[in-house]
Amino acid sequence: MPTISASDFLRMTRISFMDGLTVKRRSTIGLGILSRRKSGEKELVAGVGDYVTAMTIGIPQLETYNYAAKELKEYISNGKKAIKILEEDLDANNPYLFKEYLASGEEDRRAIEETLGGHKEAMRMRSKMSWYKWRHNFVSEMQLAADRETELLQQDLESLQAIGTQLTEPIPSLREQHAKLKAQLAAERAAVEAAKDCDPEIMSELKVGISEQSAQIESYKADIQSSTAKLEKLKLKLGEAETDKRALQDQIRDHQEKLDALHPTVEIVNLREEFNKLQRLHLWHAITLEEKLIELRYDDHYKVQMECVAFQPIPSGCRILVIPSKGKQVDEFPVLSELVLDLAQAMIRQVTDLNLKKVVRMLGRLWTSVSHLRCNLRLLAMKYPVTITRADSGFGFKTTARVRFPGAKGLAKIVFIAEEQHIRDWGKQLNTLGVDVDVIFGKLDRNLLVEVIRERLSDAIIEESYGLLLDACADAIACTEE
Known about the structure:
By secondary structure, the protein is of the alpha+beta class. Among the domains are: 128 residues, no CATH class; 67 residues; 110 residues, Roll (Ubiquitin Conjugating Enzyme). Helices cover 63% and strands 13% of the residues. It has a 4-stranded antiparallel β-sheet. A hairpin with a 3-residue loop joins β1 and β2. The longest helix has 63 residues.
């Protein structure tokens, strides 16, 4: 009974789980809180109310969306790993459904395809129901938060109204006092006019009394100046005391922060757990983070050591080491491992304005591409003897597979020629992969085999790059049996 891989079975039954992902759908995101204006209107400056609304509604929504996005990324990553393990199990041991489908006729296959389509639609609707349920709960939680903030705003409005009432109550009494002062001023002016018509002797006596009062006033002014000078000195001393107080408070705050740092809090534990999740997600683990040395580990395979100046890596001080594998596991492709290590060192030396972010992004992308490449080579080596030889110059290599052709009773060497760009970005450079065929014996058309393999590589896309080299060899064998 022939066997079939899970991906080939899904392709034959036309059951795809990726359809509809790129279809445009209606937006569920509302207008920005600070940019709501009609077309044609001039741009308005956001008021305090808009900023308060943004801080109480927009920021919590943004934080919630960020948390949800991180959880979804982790969920998708775990799902991909589970699917990969399931596909490997299905490829190794085909279930009864695969065998029955291969052995069935056209009508039975159509019935099986319709049944699988129904199952797919049911699972899709169940996932959609879970999504709507989650979104409903999310909106409900946000509504509760909005209601709480609305209550707080209502309380603030009531407080402001009470303050306004308190300010309007003393206005009538102040107006009455103002009227009394005006009447008193008019009476004093009338008294002054009447005094002008008095007897000169009485006026001289009044002038003497005024001069005496002026002397007393000058004495009082001198006392006030002396008191003012004393007050200024006291204010200076008070300012110095306030400065000393703030300095002591800053010292107390610094010591309190250091004391809090010595004791793990809930926030620190949560941040550490989130940091560990991010490390597991991106396969990078920080070993040493110091001002002069940064040491990272990638997926328990590579160790990156960087000499730094103020946390700024030095290109000549960057070293990439291979972590020895545990147990008796042997490297299947040592030539490729050595080539990738040399390429990584060269890439770091070529970068200008090197920083930690560039190193992590560049090496992470390279090793992700190499993992996909190794997966294809591993599948090819499981079926055929494979030999990898490094190019004389540069960072290219050749993969030679000895393939038997039972239909033509022949043997040939199929050579896949990879350049530096294929190692750096395997998924996007599939159609430029070089191909050569060396016929050892048998009635084999070398040009036909090269054309069939190149045609298979030219049609390859990123989503179907798993097992590409093995499929190309299988197509070459199939063309000799027709």
